[in-house]
TrEMBL record:
Upper taxonomic lineage: Bacteria, Bacillati, Candidatus Sysuimicrobiota, Candidatus Sysuimicrobiia, Candidatus Sysuimicrobiales
This protein's name: Transcriptional regulator
Any matching Pfam family: CdAMP_rec
Length: 109
């Protein structure tokens, strides 16, 4: 068995969950926060058989989109704040960051 851990953008979570449930996968959604942007994102846990991992990845690929986001860099601590001019920088976020892990055992009690 495998555990798929997918970090997705909040805008994609609803469609992704709908498609997973439609395809009869079991999933759990957790609210999470990205370390770089410090903004909310969603982490979805999906436990499934090894042979179905590619199906899950295909659903994630179909439903999660790459988006660009503007980030304002923080001023450096050593510079006086009024001498620092920062231009917002574009970063690409998503479609999804996916980890596929081995599961030793699944117990439902
Ligand atoms: P964040 O950490 O908020 O990162 C958002 C996006 O900012 C990233 O998109 C990446 O394009 C950019 N970024 C991140 N760190 C950067 C840095 N040091 N310098 C420049 N740009 C940087 P994604 O790669 O699509 O990641 C989306 C979210 O997935 C991340 O949100 C984080 O919550 C998670 N994530 C990504 N890689 C991860 C990893 N190796 N381990 C754990 N979580 C990860």
């Amino acid at each position: 068995m495998k555990l798929i851990l997918a970090i997705v953008q909040d805008k994609d979570k609803r469609r992704l969950m709908e498609e997973l449930v439609k395809a009869e996968f079991q999933a759990t959604m957790l609210a999470s926060t990205g370390g770089f942007l410090r903004e909310g994102n969603t982490t979805i846990l999906i436990g499934t058989d090894e042979g179905k991992v590619e199906n899950v990845l295909a659903i994630i690929q179909r439903t999660c989109h790459v988006r660009e986001q503007l980030v304002s860099p923080l001023p450096p601590v050593v510079e006086p704040v009024d001498s620092y001019i920062s231009a917002p920088v574009k970063v690409q976020v998503g479609g999804a960051v996916v980890f596929v892990l081995d599961v030793e055992r699944l117990v439902k009690i």
